[in-house]
Amino acid sequence: MLEAYPQNRLARIVLWSFAALVMAFLMLPTLVVVPLSFSASNLLEFPPHAYSLRWYENFFGSATWMAALRTSLILGTLTALIAVPFALLACISMNRLGGKSAASIQGVLLTPSVTPGILLAIGLFFVLAAQRLVGTLFGVLVGHVVLAVPVACIVLLPALARFDWNQVQAARSLGADWARAIGEIIVPQLRLSLLSATLMAFLTSLDESVISIFVASGRNSTMPKLMFISLRDQIDPTIAAISTLWTAIVVVVVVIVALRQKSLPSRKS
C-alpha cells in the first residue's frame, strides 16, 4: 500500500503514522499485562508499586497449571497435524470440481467459522456426550479441529487457485497416482502456504476457550479454560503471568515460522 505513493513524502508519513497508531492500539492492552505479571501485590495493580517473580513461581509450581499447559500444547500440535492435511485435500477437491459442487463443499467447511462459538460448543457437547467423549482429549481435539479446518482452508484456497495444475496432469499421465502427485508436486510448491496454515491452525487451538469450557474437564482441561475459571473465582497476578507467557509462546512460534519461511526458496504458492 505504501509503495503506491513513491513521490509523495507527506502521504507516506501519514500512512506510516496511521499504521503505527493502529499497531499501538492493538499492542498496548497486551503490553500492559507484562508489568502486571511482575507485581508483588496480591491484586492486579498498574503500575506495580513493587516487583516480584512470585506469580511465575506460583504458575510453574502448580501441577494443575502445568497439566493444562501440556494439554494445550499437545492439542495445538495434534490439531495442526490433522486439520492442515484435511484442509489441503478439501481445497484440492474444491479446485478440481469447481462450480456448485465446490461452492457447496466450501460452504460446509466454512460453516464453523461463521457459527457463533457458543452454539457450536453446545452442539458439539451433545454430539460428544452421546458418544461418551465429553472430558476426553479426543473429544476436545475434535472440537479444535472443527474450528481449525476453516482457518486452514482460507489460507490454502488462494494458493491452490494460483497453482499450475499442468504439472500434476503431466505427472498423472506418466503413471503417478494422486498420493504421489500431492506429496511430490503440490506439497513442495505450497510449503509456504502450508506452513502458514499450520501456524494458524496451531494458534486457533491454542487460543480456543468456548469449546474447551463445554467439552474439556479434569486433567484434559486447557489453559484458556483454567484461565477463565480462575478469573471467575479469584483474580490475582498469576493470570497476568500466564498471559505474558502465553503471548511469549505465540510470538516465538510466529517468529520461528517467519524465519522458516525466509529460509525456504522463494516460489509462488
From TrEMBL:
Pfam families named in the record: BPD_transp_1
Compartments, record wording: Cell inner membrane; Cell membrane
TM segment ranges: 12-38, 73-95, 107-130, 136-157, 194-218, 238-259
Gene Ontology BP term (one): transmembrane transport
Example of a GO cellular component annotation carried by this entry: plasma membrane
Primary location recorded for the protein, binned into one broad class: membrane
Xref: SUPFAM superfamilies: MetI-like
Occurrences of domain ABC transmembrane type-1 (ranges): 69-257
Swiss-Prot/TrEMBL keywords: Cell inner membrane, Cell membrane, Membrane, Transmembrane, Transmembrane helix, Transport
Cited InterPro entries: MetI-like (IPR000515), MetI-like_sf (IPR035906)
Membrane topology label: Multi-pass membrane protein
PANTHER family assigned to the protein according to its UniProt record, in alphabetical order: INNER MEMBRANE ABC TRANSPORTER PERMEASE PROTEIN YDCV (PTHR43357)
Family of the protein in this entry: Belongs to the binding-protein-dependent transport system permease family.
Protein name: Putative spermidine/putrescine transport system permease protein
Protein species of origin: Mesorhizobium muleiense
